[in-house]
Amino acid sequence: MARVHADVNARLGPGWYDYESLRIDWNVPDNYEIISRIGGGKYSEVFQGVDMSNEETVVIKVLKPVAKRKIKREIKILRNLAGGPNVVGLLDVVHDSPSRSNSLIMEYVHNTDWKELYPTFTEIEIKHYVFQLLSALDFVHSRGIMHRDVKPGNVMFDRARRKLRLIDWGLAEFYHPDTEYHIRVGSRYYKGPELLVEYKKYDYSLDLWSVGCMLASMIFRKEHFFRGRDNEDQLLRILKVLGTDSFERYLEKYGLFIRTDNPGLLESHPKVSWTRFVTTDNKPNVTTEVIDLLDKLLRYDHGERLTAAEALSHAYFSIVRLGTATKSADRVSDSGFASM
């Protein structure tokens, strides 16, 4: 059972989480015009577009033919999360009769590509963006939802405005305790160990592993910190850093075992100190505080990982929290409430 927010969906009831009963009123796409392709994947093609009614730039996510329940789930989750901090906004849902395609009209964020970002992040930028990402996940988890695909490609960084948005909710799911979920979620380099050993009763902590992987990439300036060729090699890359002693304790605690022909997964590997990854180039970003945070996110045992709220309270983010508090105080002062 998740350490936090385990009862959210039971408390809010089926009206909150039962997406299969959702009735979607699709609008016509006449107001929207595609400008250029942004990207795409297994489930969708994504375009930059314009809302002709107000000339606003939007993202048009054209859904490929998939199960109706999956489309309903994504829309239900986006509507439930509307207005949440750093969560991309769903603006409209449209159906094009000639092509029989459905599209989601999303908030546009002027993104800087991860390959350009990760080698150039300053320490304060890392703190700022990871804090925003954790704020999004703290909100999302408090609403009983797991993202299940946190990775750089699903985080939009608007560097000019110092704004971040967590996007792509196609694999997100509502969390119910003691429920078995699909393990074919996430992207290989950011998959938590629970997915790699086929532990199906995972929870929100899966997202925190992925944040840890992104944080490691940021501070050590590696595009993908754990970069396996396949799922078995991905697990081996993790074992060669975190060691096999705590991995064996993790397997024993949850009654797990691995079937493999990969000899490396059956060998013993010592835990490697995080300082091993410090170089002249990345040294300015590596502090005692960030190493402590990283160590508490990248744990085999999902029950031992920091929650999003605990991570937000970590000493590493002290300056960010101070800045947030100062801005809030300034807003109160400007509104005149401070004198009341």
UniProtKB/TrEMBL annotation:
GO terms for cellular component: cytosol; nucleolus; protein kinase CK2 complex. SUPFAM superfamilies: Protein kinase-like (PK-like) (SSF56112). Residues 32-317 form the Protein kinase domain. It is an enzyme of class 2 (transferase). Transmembrane segments: none annotated. Its main location: nucleus. Keywords: ATP-binding, Kinase, Nucleotide-binding, Nucleus, Serine/threonine-protein kinase, Transferase. It is found in: Nucleus. GO terms for molecular function: ATP binding; protein serine kinase activity; protein serine/threonine kinase activity. Heterotetramer. PROSITE patterns: PROTEIN_KINASE_ATP, PROTEIN_KINASE_DOM, PROTEIN_KINASE_ST. GO terms for biological process: DNA damage response; regulation of cell cycle; regulation of transcription by RNA polymerase I; regulation of transcription by RNA polymerase II; regulation of transcription by RNA polymerase III. Its EC number is 2.7.11.1. The keyword Transport does not apply. It comes from Phanerochaete carnosa (strain HHB-10118-sp). Catalytic subunit of a constitutively active serine/threonine-protein kinase complex that phosphorylates a large number of substrates containing acidic residues C-terminal to the phosphorylated serine or threonine. Signal peptide: none annotated. ATP binds at K61. This is Casein kinase II subunit alpha. It catalyses: L-seryl-[protein] + ATP = O-phospho-L-seryl-[protein] + ADP + H(+); L-threonyl-[protein] + ATP = O-phospho-L-threonyl-[protein] + ADP + H(+). Belongs to the protein kinase superfamily. Ser/Thr protein kinase family. CK2 subfamily.
